[in-house]
Amino acid sequence: MPEPRHVYDLTLPDWEAWVQAQSQPAYRARQIWEGLYRHLWARPEDFSTLPKSLRAALAREFVFQRLTPEQEQVSQDGETHKTLFRLPDGPVVETVRMRYIRRRTLCISTQSGCAMGCVFCATGQLGLLRHLSPGEIVEQVLYYARWLRGQGERVTHIVVMGMGEPFHNYDATLQALDTLNHPAGFNLGARRVTISTVGLVPRIRQFAREGRQYNLAVSLHAADDELRQRLIPVARRWPLADLMDAVRDYIARTHRRVTFEWALIRDVNDTPDQARKLARLLRGMLAHVNLIPLNPTPGYEGRASPRERARAFCAVLEEAGVPCTVRLRRGIDIQAGCGQLAGQALGPRPRFLVGSRWEN
């Protein structure tokens, strides 16, 4: 008997083909889709709009849960909530909910671990354990969507900035986001979604060609190749000239602003020289810089830039006409901040991407 499929891995056309194979009318596919993503039903028996035989087929052929929540943590201020999920084959991923005055933002993961090896990132220090499927990405959102619905609230924004490099798992990530964006289901607006990449140039170009309306953020962290390649090993494959050319192509095609993320590391990349180089790199570009004082991780000795140095860095950019903000750090006490997600890292030996080859 075939292995049951994950119910959230299917697209709406997949459901249309499935109900046809069940000798059911085509509108049943839309009922299933609405049940999953509008009503947030989580069990076959919840689908009261379907005949009993179709509910039985759902129970027989699909699983509704692949992520098992094992640990929940809430920050001292109560504004950040982190969940550690166990995958069926052993590895873990983490997802974060952040509460703002008018927003309920989820930071979701696309991989367990990460192959990019950024030296200051706890996830990068793990190496790649495995990619998530589209359904495993979607399930993180639905888990919190149900919880928020119970509070009379809803998910307002998603940032794809959790564990993993989204563009390294490109197809699964974009299928998951398209599912969540679908107007007949979860219906989260594309402009409420931000995808963060460390700078995989071919995928940025593909993303630009496809014309989706999700926001793009690029983790830059240095304004010259020598420093960037020390901080982000995968940058050896795509130097800054190639990366910035791809970003300009994205802006020209989409007319969308790009956010550049910069983890401020004291005496490493928070100097006036780096600020001036960054200003020259971005001058005239439809861009915004998001400065993030470094969050501590066990595998990196660097320290966060103090607030006055962050403000001075930002002032250099603003004087050159480059918009800039210093992000408020959230969830640091529960290791839920940017670059801190690592889970318990159980599973197979991680792999790292070095040039075009994998190494253990």
Task: Based on Cα principal axes, name the global outline.
Answer: elongated
Helix share bin: 25-40%
CATH superfamily of the largest domain: Aldolase class I
The tally of domains stands at 2
Quaternary structure of the protein? single chain
Largest beta sheet: strand ordering: 3-4-5-6-9-10-11-12-13-14
Find the structural class using helix and strand composition.
alpha/beta
Sheet with most strands: 10 strands, mixed
Distance between the termini: 35 Å
Strand content: 15-25%
Q: How many whole angstroms does the radius of gyration measure? A: 21 Å
> Would you list the SSEs in sequence order as H and E?
EHHHEEEEEEHEHEHEHEHHEHEHEEE
Low-confidence stretches: 345-360
Average pLDDT taken over every residue: 89
Number of DSSP strand runs: 16
Please state the second-level CATH architecture of the largest domain. Answer: Alpha-Beta Barrel
CATH C-level class of the largest domain is Alpha Beta
Structure explained in plain terms:
By secondary structure, the protein is α/β, with parallel strands linked by helices. The protein is 34% helix and 21% strand. Helix 5 (134-150) packs parallel to helix 6 and helix 10 (272-282) runs parallel beside helix 11. The longest helix has 17 residues, at 134-150. The two termini are 35 Å apart. The model is unreliable at 345-360 (pLDDT under 50).
